[in-house]
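Re: the request from the purification team.
They wanted to know what the chain is likely to look like in 3D before they choose a buffer screen. I agreed to run a prediction and write the result into the notebook, where they can find it.
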Amino acid sequence: MADGSFLDRMASQLRSACRYYTGYPKDLGPSRIITFTSERQFVQLLHEGCPVVVAFTIKCTYTHHLDKVMEEAASTFYPHIKFVRVECPKYPGFCLTRQKNEYPFIEVFYNPEQAASQGKGVDPNVTKYSVKVLPFNYDQSVYGFREYFKKHGFKWSSELKTG
């Protein structure tokens, strides 16, 4: 018994004193993933000027793993890159426009620009935007996101501090 309490105290002391504790679960703080609620909210998010990583999900075992990866990545790249999760059964219209049939999948949206109006009779209350969309085909991990962002020239906090 005394050994167990000594080991507990020693482990606790190490955790509090060590600068880099790598144990799990990681304390990521509050969730940085934005839950998709509407296309209007999504457009407003794009107008903040940050790249937006969108996970299109359904209920399956792989989505549970993807959620953990997204949580860690969102925490790592916050506030320079936003992460959004869309539950496709709740928002089928938004998901179907992506023309994919394998779920879950990830796409990266960035650089919204106001599109030129084409044709006559366009509703003046409707604004069209041009957004670049890239498929995410890297390893689904924080490392994979970091490599993807490097390749495509996206800036995030750790890079901004050093470069």
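For the purification team: The radius of gyration is 20 Å.
Please add any questions underneath this entry.
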